[in-house]
Amino acid sequence: MTRHQGPAPRRTALVTGAGSGLGALAARRLAAADWAVIAADVDGAGLARTALRSPTMHTRVCDVSDVKAVEEMVAEAGPLDRVVHAAGISLLGTALEQPLDDVERTWRVDFLGTVYVVRATLPGMLERAQGELILFSSLAGWVSPPKLSAYASAKAAINTYAEVLDQEYGGRGVKIRCVCPSQVDTPQFRRIAEEDPSVVVNQKAMPAGVVLDEVERSLARDELFVFPGATARLAVRAKRFVPGLLQHVLSRMTSG
């Protein structure tokens, strides 16, 4: 007698920052591919828009800078096959004049939020020796723009944290990716561009879909850092090999 296999179990993903931008698109794409998606954000209205007409998506209002809230959300979610951590904030201000409250808030959300999400989710995936951990950083963590010192330094910390994670836990069945795009067309980018065009060096942003396409391709390769777009790849190489020239170019672009 031939035994018929039933449908494969639905995979489960947690997406933070799912109220808008990269997180929202990532959550929608996964839901469209028949993943069970837990979409998390502090913006309940944004989550409702993301989850519209997505029956496999469940929303959770959660502040990733609140470690207890993150732990409770992950415990309720159960085993996860993919984590997309896209939550983050970016507040403008010069290094000596930005209010310390803004600096501390940026680090709590961007860096500590990353640590809290990783510590809540990675152990379970390591125990099952499978899963995908995708952390969104930024090119700003490699090539720091003016007026974004808190954001850029927090992203640089994420890059280092991801590198250590890969050294300590790589090769144990979980794919770890640290995604460092240049400017991406998101509500946060558009707000910053409106507040001060020089911060985004007067450049156009790439579509969020281009970034997510590159992330998917990276999962078939053995790499930690993902640099979507030619600008990010060129800038990182220039930072390493011709830092003086890169600084000169950036100075001209930001002053123009």
Quick structural summary:
By secondary structure, the protein is α/β, with parallel strands linked by helices. Helix content is 49%, strand content 13%.
Present the secondary structure layout.
Elements: E1 12-16, H1 21-32, E2 36-41, H2 44-51, E3 57-61, H3 67-77, E4 82-85, H4 100-128, E5 131-136, H5 149-169, E6 174-179, H6 187-195, H7 208-218, E7 225-226, H8 230-241, H9 243-255
Parallel strand pairs: 1-2, 1-4, 2-3, 4-5, 5-6, 6-7
Helix pairs in contact: 1-2, 1-7, 3-4, 4-5, 8-9
What are the key terms here?
single chain, 7 strands, globular, 49% helix, alpha/beta, 256 residues
Provide an overview of this structure.
This protein has 256 residues and is of the alpha/beta class. It has 9 helices and 7 strands; from the N terminus they run βαβαβαβαβαβααβαα. Helix 5 links the parallel strand 5 and strand 6. Helix 3 packs parallel to helix 4 (100-128), helix 4 (100-128) packs parallel to helix 5 (149-169) and helix 8 crosses helix 9. The longest helix is centred in the middle third of the chain and has 29 residues, at 100-128. The termini are far apart. The model has no long low-confidence stretch (mean pLDDT 90).
